């Protein structure tokens, strides 16, 4: 006696002899499970004559369906909520059924505007009037997708001038991870997904890594800004030396170290005026106690470099 099981219950049903008679009932149960966010595990049985493993055996008989619940991570909803708050549009791309995807999307708070993958390539419109590229922008996710669908979604979003990040862990995610502006391989990802990604997470979940990535992207610092800062710094140094005949500190290590110490200490202390205000720091007048504390702290800071220069 042999047992056959699989999470794709439709394929298990195709092996069975009575599929024509029970297909409608099986599909109805699968849809009912899917509406509750449950996978369907199909089970079939085949009788094989004793001591004859090479025998083709009798026909497969469909035994039934077992519901399986594969819940999202405990921190998924909070991570998605933070991402949406930061202005990141989160989309679900899954091979699950439409009903399962909608139920999962509702639980995670990311919407239920899901479409089948067939609507991407225009093979089956299902009453959808939007063009595929417009559909991809507006949809909360797509179901029943294959690797080429994931790649196409990333490509179209990039053509619409969006910065696209993609997360994945399997071989089938590798093309889309490579195509995305930011490919993120989650923990326990395959070697193919890791090699195709820009970032590889070493811990389960996206919470810390995703939030850090979103903040880095929000405060983008182009490389040419470093060059501009260096040029302005050099020009400012030479300007005061040439026009006001200020003596250069070059060649005197004691004076240079004292000047750097004062610069760092003053800047770090002055940050209090930025952090205390909700808007621009110069728009709100600091209190008297704060100003006194700042001046006193600076006087204490000055004592050390002055003593160093005098000795």
Automatic annotation (TrEMBL):
It holds the Pfam family Hydrolase. It is a multi-pass membrane protein. Keywords: ATP-binding, Magnesium, Membrane, Metal-binding, Nucleotide-binding, Phosphoprotein, Transmembrane, Transmembrane helix. GO terms for molecular function: ATP binding; ATP hydrolysis activity; metal ion binding. It is found in: Membrane. GO terms for cellular component: membrane. InterPro entries: ATPase_P-typ_cyto_dom_N, HAD-like_sf, HAD_sf, P_typ_ATPase. Belongs to the cation transport ATPase (P-type) (TC 3.A.3) family. Type IIIA subfamily. PANTHER family: CALCIUM-TRANSPORTING ATPASE. This is Uncharacterized protein.
């Amino acid at each position: 006696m042999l047992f056959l099981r699989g999470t794709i219950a439709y394929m298990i049903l195709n092996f069975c002899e009575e599929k024509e008679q029970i297909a409608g009932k099986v599909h109805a149960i699968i849809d009912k499970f899917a509406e509750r966010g449950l996978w369907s595990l199909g089970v079939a049985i085949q009788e094989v004559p004793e001591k004859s493993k090479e025998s083709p055996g009798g026909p497969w008989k469909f035994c039934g369906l077992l519901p399986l619940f594969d819940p999202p991570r405990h921190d998924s909803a909070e991570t998605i909520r933070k991402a949406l708050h930061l202005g990141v549009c989160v989309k679900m791309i899954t091979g699950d059924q439409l009903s399962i995807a909608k139920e999962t999307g509702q639980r995670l708070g990311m919407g239920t505007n899901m479409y089948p993958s067939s609507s991407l390539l225009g093979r089956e419109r299902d009453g959808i009037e939007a063009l595929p590229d417009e559909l991809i922008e507006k949809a909360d996710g797509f179901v029943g997708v294959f690797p080429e669908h994931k790649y196409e979604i990333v490509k179209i979003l990039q053509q619409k001038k969006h910065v696209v990040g993609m997360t994945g862990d399997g071989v089938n995610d590798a093309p889309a991870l490579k195509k995305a502006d930011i490919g993120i391989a989650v923990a326990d990802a395959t070697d193919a997904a890791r090699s195709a990604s820009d970032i590889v997470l070493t811990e389960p979940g996206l919470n810390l890594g995703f939030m850090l990535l979103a903040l880095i992207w929000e405060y983008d610092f182009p490389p040419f800004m470093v060059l501009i800062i260096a040029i302005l710094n050099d020009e400012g140094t030479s300007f005061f030396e040439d026009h006001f005949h200020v003596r250069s500190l070059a060649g005197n290590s004691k004076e240079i170290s004292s000047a750097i110490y004062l610069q760092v200490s003053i800047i770090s202390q002055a940050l209090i005026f930025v952090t205390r205000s909700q808007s621009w720091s110069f728009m709100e007048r600091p209190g008297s106690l704060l100003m006194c504390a700042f001046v006193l702290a600076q006087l204490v800071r000055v004592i050390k470099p002055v003593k160093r220069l005098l000795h």
